[in-house]
Amino acid sequence: MNIDIIFKIAAVGILTAVVGQILKNSGKEDISTLATLAGVVIVLFMVLGMISELFTSIRGMFNF
């Protein structure tokens, strides 16, 4: 497993938190919620790719 993915997930989280706070403080709570949701979806797609690779390697180990 590569450690770069952890840094990418952390960077998306920090960026999402900063953008969310800026938007919330400027009075745009609905857009802040959408920005936070977009960050979660981006990280979810990154993790889904890793889970897919995990299941592929497990299937290869057991020759299914």
Integer average pLDDT? 91
Structural class: mainly alpha
Taken as a percent bin, the fraction of beta residues is under 5%
Count the helices. How many?
A: 2
| Count of spatially separate domains | 1
Write the element-wise H/E pattern from the N-terminal end onward. Answer: HH
Helix fraction by DSSP (H/I, runs of at least 4): over 70%
Task: Describe it.
The protein has 64 residues and is an all-alpha fold. The chain has one domain. Helix content is 88%, strand content 0%. The protein contains two helices and no strands. Helix 1 runs antiparallel to helix 2.
Task: Summarize the model shown.
88% of the residues lie in helices and 0% in strands. α1 packs antiparallel against α2.
Summary tags:
64 residues, 0% strand, elongated
Blueprint (SSEs and pairs):
Blueprint: H1 4-25, H2 29-62
Helix pairs in contact: 1-2
